[in-house]
Design goal:
26 helices, about 70% helix, mainly alpha, single chain
Length: about 550
């Protein structure tokens, strides 16, 4: 019954215009349609060309304003306002069924449920494992350029990270930790630095206070390294004490976890200082020790720091060993892992690679493996190649990144561009092959090829993470909605009519009459045929009814 009613309603909408036309034709005499049409025609013939100029000019102005609003709405929200209103409000009124699902509201059945969970994890914001020092690097950029490289959203996430890593429920036991707990919540940098000094006055051996000063007050990497060494000395003492007491109660266990986080954080930052100061082997050794000693802290992505240091040492065999451990299907991927794997495979063939030679004889097995690795990396993060090929300008990387997003691409290229340049021919191979990835990925992008479908949330999150002066890379490119094209065409057409009517009023009048006579010719022809086919008495009886 429901299906039959739906079928009847659908065909009723189709027949409704035809029924209205028949009704108007039957009632043309009582409604005096012909006389009214003649009166309207006479009125229009008496209008001056100025009226038509004003009419077309006003139409062009209104359509131009609609075009401007549509363009602004599309740039800000990525959708057409008219289409959204049509789908949200008009479609239910005419009996349409809303069958469009949000990207995050995928059908949770079997593999689709797994894809939904993966999309949600892909849109998670991660701490950048190679983030710079605020005082020694980010602030120096601000002093030189007058621009803020970090957004408020990014710094707020860092404050939350610091509170998670460096505070616990037992902070009230140690007075210095109580002061630092308030310091991490301060929004003003000077207030945080002042609180760190207050914590050191309470207890000279407070590692988190030294960490804050190294991150935000030190103006050079050397100064930051000195403060971090003091933090390491104090942190090791506290860590050993809490390690002995961790099994006594839950409070001691929480304190041990916090002290472990502090120790690992300090050691990694010391390794990054050594890397920046040219002591690469020392940095690689510290990172190797951290990976071995604290394997459970894989979410800190220390292996990405190790990969970058080993690439700087050109220890490609060691890089391959690290990739063999972390480039696993069960572990989360990153641009560093995918593009480093592609770089190693490209290194084996890039020096002798030539597009002309490859097109003549075809790709060898090694070249095919390198191209497939590049396609895999580009599918994971399609924003990276433009930065590596210097088609887009780089900025300082943010403190947090979105995997598969533009923020991750900026962070990866900022540190790894030099490694690609060092391998002869690698960038040339990337330039020749990276765009071929988009011919492999299914379109539309509901299905991925080697990875899950590209998440739709990256643009919004990247705009929050990256500074306003940076042009965010968007994938896939959004096509302009139909109504932007329509209003642009309407605005241009009405403006042209206004100009022609103003310049050539008589000629446009003749053209308008010819146009409307041609437009209504089929209708007049159909009316004459109906009058000739039906007897006049039948039409008279219908009129009386």
């Amino acid at each position: 019954l429901c299906r039959g009613l739906a079928w009847c309603s659908a065909y009723l909408w189709v027949m409704w215009p035809f029924m209205m036309l028949v009704l108007l034709y039957v009632l043309r005499a009582p409604l005096r349609l012909y006389e009214n049409l003649v009166a309207v025609t006479v009125f229009l013939n008496t209008l001056t060309p100025k009226f038509y100029v004003a009419l077309t000019g006003t139409s062009s102005l209104i359509s131009g304003l609609i075009l401007i609003f549509e363009w602004w709405y599309f740039r800000k929200y990525g959708a057409s306002f008219i289409e959204q209103v049509s789908v949200s409000h008009l479609r239910p009124l005419i009996g349409g069924v809303e069958n469009i699902t949000a990207p995050s509201a995928l059908v949770a059945s079997g593999g689709e449920a797994e894809a939904s969970r993966q999309n949600l994890s892909d849109c998670k914001v991660w701490r950048n494992p190679l983030n710079l020092f605020r005082g020694a690097e980010y602030n120096r950029y601000t002093w030189v350029t007058g621009r803020e490289p970090l957004t408020y959203f990014d710094m707020n996430l860092s404050a939350q990270d610091h509170q998670t890593l460096f505070t616990c429920d037992t902070d009230s036991v140690r007075p210095s930790d109580t002061v630092m707990q308030k310091a991490w919540r301060e929004r003003n940098p000077q207030a945080r630095i002042k609180a760190a000094y207050q914590a050191l006055e309470v207890q000279n051996e407070c590692p988190t206070a030294y960490v804050l000063l190294a991150e935000e007050e030190a103006t050079t990497i050397l100064d930051a390294e000195k403060l971090l060494k003091q933090a390491l000395k104090a942190g090791e003492i506290i860590y050993k004490k809490s390690q002995q007491l961790q099994h006594h109660n839950t409070q001691n266990e929480a304190q041990y976890r916090r002290d472990t986080n502090v120790l690992v954080y300090v050691k990694r930052r010391l390794a990054m200082c050594a890397r920046k100061l040219g002591r690469i082997k020392e940095a690689a050794k510290i990172m190797r020790d951290l990976v071995k000693e604290f394997p459970m802290l894989s979410m800190l992505n220390i292996h990405e720091n190790l990969l970058e240091a080993l690439l700087e040492l050109q220890a490609y065999a060691d890089v391959q060993a690290v990739l063999a451990k972390y480039d696993d299907i069960s572990l989360p991927k990153s641009a560093a892992i995918c593009y480093t794997a592609a770089l190693l495979k490209a290194r084996a063939v890039s020096e002798r690679f030539s597009p002309e030679t490859a097109s003549r004889r075809g790709l060898s097995t090694a070249e095919m493996n390198a191209v497939e690795a590049i396609h895999r990396a580009v599918e994971f993060n399609p924003h990276v190649p433009k930065y590596l090929l210097e088609m887009k300008s780089l900025i300082l990387p943010p403190e947090h990144i979105l995997k598969r997003g533009d923020s991750e691409a900026v962070a990866y290229a900022f540190f790894h561009l030099q490694h690609w340049k060092r391998v002869e021919g690698a960038l040339n191979l990337l330039h020749c092959t990276w765009e071929g990835t988009f011919r492999i990925i299914p379109y539309p992008l509901e299905k991925g090829h080697l990875f899950y479908p590209y998440p739709s949330c990256t643009e919004t999150a990247d705009r929050e993470l990256l500074p306003s002066f940076h042009e965010v890379s968007v994938y896939p490119k959004k096509e302009l909605p139909f109504f932007i094209h329509f209003t642009a065409g309407l605005c241009s057409f009405t403006a042209m009519l206004a100009l022609l009517t103003h310049q050539f009023p008589e000629l446009m009048g003749v053209f308008a009459k010819a146009f409307f006579s041609t437009l209504f010719a089929p209708f007049n022809f159909a009316v004459e045929k109906i009058e000739n086919f039906l007897p006049s008495s039948f039409l008279h009886q219908l009129t009386r009814i």
